[in-house]
Amino acid sequence: MKIKIIIAAAVVLMSFTLDKPAYKLYNQEGKKVKYEKMIKALNKADVVFIGELHNNPVSHWAEYEITKDLFKIHEAGIILGAEMFESDNQLIINEYLKGYFSDKKFEADARLWPNYNTDYKPLMTFAKKNKLNFVASNIPRRYASIVFKEGFEGLNKLTDEGKKYIAPLPPKYDPNVKCYADMIEMGKKMGHGTAEFPKAQAIKDATMAYFIQKNLEKGKLFIHYNGSYHSDNHEGIVWYLKNANPKLKILTVSCVEQKDINELTEENKNLADYIFVIPESMTKTY
């Protein structure tokens, strides 16, 4: 009986000592990097993009931890911004951050993503607690829908008031940028491979870049949260921001899933300056 107990205890002990990390961190070349080294590098940037997998809990944890740690060490302060909030919601965000009304009222009136409470509320709460600006950078989806149907030209019919919520028209656009070229191919497979399909993505990227640039403050670090596709390969929002201001120092973080996280796959190299590799088996938030 004693032997059985000892064996059982040994099995339990072994199960707790197995190395099962939730992520491993790499640089763009595929070399393993310590989290602290990444934070020191990000702290020297003007703008940091954190590309998330929307339904991955490690992505959201990483966003919060990176934000918290950069806030601690960046002397001039930080500014937050996100794809998940549309530009015409900026006023209500500003009022909420100033404490004009409760969380319940804010969440009822703002157009929030379904996973706001679990994944983005911690960031908004952090901004409120520490008196940080939080920029609603994305184009209102009703306007992106116009571009999907009518191209950029469809936005010309908007009033001057409506045009305040988007990038100046016409936006610079290069269909040969890989992320947009890939969308055309993807669209063909899905049955809607029109020229307007990637333009609907591009107007989002252009608008997010526009509002990031508009809200930059000298010396402060701007941290932007977005789906990884918007900043991977230094394309998307990054491409627009670099075109607008080539002198900006921009660093990117991306999250990817792999079956084996012990080595960065070739296809994920150069995806971003820093890459969180997360097991494919990771629990999804929705």
Overall average pLDDT: 93
Record field, number of beta strands = 7
Shape: globular
CATH topology tier name: Rossmann fold
Summed up:
Helix content is 44%, strand content 16%. The chain is of the alpha/beta class and 286 residues long.
Present the secondary structure layout:
Elements: H1 2-17, E1 24-27, H2 35-42, E2 47-52, H3 57-73, E3 78-86, H4 90-97, H5 103-109, H6 116-129, E4 134-138, H7 141-150, H8 160-163, H9 178-190, H10 196-215, E5 221-227, H11 237-244, E6 250-258, E7 274-279
Parallel strand pairs: 2-5, 2-6, 3-4, 3-5, 6-7
Antiparallel strand pairs: 1-7
Helix pairs in contact: 3-6, 7-10, 9-10, 10-11
Task: Write up this protein.
It is a single chain. With 286 residues, the protein is α/β, with parallel strands linked by helices. It has a single domain (22-279), classed as Rossmann fold. It is built from eleven helices and seven strands. The chain has a seven-stranded mixed beta sheet with strand order 1-7-6-2-5-3-4. Helix 3 (57-73) runs parallel beside helix 6, helix 7 (141-150) runs antiparallel to helix 10 and helix 9 packs antiparallel against helix 10. The N and C termini lie far apart (46 Å).
Features:
16% strand; 286 residues; single chain; Rossmann fold; alpha/beta
